[in-house]
Known about the structure:
The chain has three helices and no strands. By secondary structure, it is an all-alpha fold. Helix 1 (about 1-20) crosses helix 2.
Amino acid sequence: MTEEKSRHEIITRAKISYGEQKTNMSMRAWIDRELREIGLPAITDDECKQYALASLPRIF
């Protein structure tokens, strides 16, 4: 349960930081990178649906 809560917090924070950055990465790629940096597995397709993550890159 603690790991799930931590993962949820990490994903939520990564979504916020993604919104603040000027990057062409997709939100999913951004969060995957954040999770890998701390040694957690990449985000799953089910989690993408749960958190409503876009897998397409942003275009500025």
